[in-house]
Amino acid sequence: MEIKELDTDCVFVEKELIPNTEPVKNLVELDSQGRIIINSYNQTSLPGVFAAGDITNIYAEQVLVAIGEGAKAALAAGQAGQETDYFGRGEMPPELEKAAAFTPE
Ligand SMILES: Cc1cc2nc3c(=O)[nH]c(=O)nc-3n(C[C@H](O)[C@H](O)[C@H](O)COP(=O)(O)OP(=O)(O)OC[C@H]3O[C@@H](n4cnc5c(N)ncnc54)[C@H](O)[C@@H]3O)c2cc1C
Which residue among 36, 45, 48, 105 is least packed, with the fewest CB closer than 10 Å? Predict the structure, then answer.
């Protein structure tokens, strides 16, 4: 290991970002870094479940990106709700019953 001396007054250390997906690891598909895999409509592997922000496998962990992704997820979820009549007016699709019944460990 090479050791170097730096003439400096302070040092900033950037820690690794670790997504807290432990509670949903048995609900939706994760990538090798533990982030929730989404498509361009912010849909996860479980129909009816959407995700946004740093916890997903998108490029660029930045505030503006997370805000935009949140807006996309809300739009896509709203669209899915209209198309499938999720919002309490109809039968809950079987795939969503898994999400509704899900209890994090
Ligand atoms: C040190 C640092 C500096 C940064 N600087 C910049 C910058 O200058 N510019 C920039 O654009 N971006 C910056 N970022 C990145 C930016 O902060 C993130 O991209 C953004 O906050 C992501 O938003 P998010 O809503 O996806 O996640 P977060 O902001 O992390 O929000 C997730 C929330 O979920 C909560 N949570 C976690 N687990 C649970 C649970 N089980 N139950 C309930 N709540 C839970 C957390 O407490 C948190 O409040 C920085 C990040 C760090 C760490």
Answer: 105
Ligand 1: residues whose CB is within 6 Å? Answer: 20, 23, 53-55, 61-64, 66
- Which residue's CA is the closest to the ligand 1 atom numbered 46? 20
Maximum Cα interatomic distance, the chain, rounded to a whole number of Å? 67
Contacts of residue 57, Cβ cutoff 8 Å, sequence gap at least 6: 31, 33, 35, 36, 37, 38
Interval 64-102: pLDDT, tens: 999 999 999 999 998 887 777 655 555 666 666 777 777
CATH of the domain at 29: 3.50.50.60
